[in-house]
Amino acid sequence: KAGVTQTPRYLIKTRGQQVTLSCSPISGHRSVSWYQQTPGQGLQFLFEYFSETQRNKGNFPGRFSGRQFSNSRSEMNVSTLELGDSALYLCASSPQGAGSLTEAFFGQGTRLTVV
Amino acid sequence: QKEVEQDPGPLSVPEGAIVSLNCTYSNSAFQYFMWYRQYSRKGPELLMYTYSSGNKEDGRFTAQVDKSSKYISLFIRDSQPSDSATYLCAMSGSRGYGQNFVFGPGTRLSVLP
User: Fold this and answer.
1) What is the average pLDDT across A63-86?
2) Which residues of A touch B99 (CB under 8 A)?
3) Minimum distance, in Å, between the CA of residue A6 and any CA atom of chain B
4) Shortest Cα distance, chain B CAs vs residue A14, angstroms
5) Residues 6+ apart with CB under 8 A from A9
6) Is B3 in CB contact (< 8 Å) with chain A?
């Protein structure tokens, strides 16, 4: 069974640009959550999608957005990139609704560097 | 003061040693506690999950929760070089949902052969 797939693995962008990251969950999983991981901050919850609907959102500015498609694949977008957006962005998929973390599997992440 | 504190390390131990990894927290409402292992260039994987106080054992790993002291620990017995990774603690007051968990920054562990 394939795991959670995130693409691309690495990205370098310039301040002010926008970026789109992709996450393909485990087959049959309908909940996808996104996290930002930075040194010293740990993981911080961005948002969670279930059945194409955003169910929960963390404390991030509106520049961070996402969506989920009918096949459960999800994308997140960051507009007007800032240096502080440099981080590892992780996607987690869960089989049930409401994004239970105890049942979630993480992808390998996308390393975004903003220069 | 951060809600969850964790010594970032790095922590280096010889193979076979007992490793103690710890997190302290300030929110007395936390009831769900998790430990993740994250290898370099990989996503976190869930190691242990405990509810409320007490101990939980799984092979070489033991998770311990002391709610009175707001302190949780992960012990690794007979540590192996393959245990070299970053260990993250996470905790929540509400059942299970990702948005409610607060993560520690992680402790980097190196087990030397």
Assistant:
1) 97
2) 33, 45, 48, 56-58, 99
3) 10
4) 22
5) A108, A109, A110, A111
6) no
Report the first-to-last Cα separation within chain A, whole angstroms. Answer: 37
At CA A17, angle to CA A12 and CA A23, rounded to 5?
60
Contacts of A48 in chain B (CB under 8 A): 98-99
Mean pLDDT confidence for A10-36: 95
B48-57 pLDDT, tens digit per residue, is: 988 888 899 9
pLDDT at A99 over 70: no
Structure tokens at B21: 């990894």
Distance from CA of B79 to the nearest CA of A (A): 24
The alpha carbon of residue B37 and the mean position of all alpha carbons in its chain are separated, in whole angstroms, by 8
Q: Alpha-carbon distance B78 to A27, whole Å?
A: 36
What is the pLDDT at residue B2? 79
3-state secondary structure of A84: helix
Q: What tens digit of pLDDT does each residue of B70-113 get?
A: 999 999 999 999 999 999 999 988 766 667 788 999 999 999 99
Q: Count the helices and strands in chain B (H runs, E runs).
A: 0, 11
Q: What is the mean pLDDT of chain B?
A: 92
Residue A25 has pLDDT above 90, yes or no: yes
End-to-end CA, chain B: 37
DSSP type of residue A25: P
Is B4 at the interface with chain A, CB within 8 A?
yes
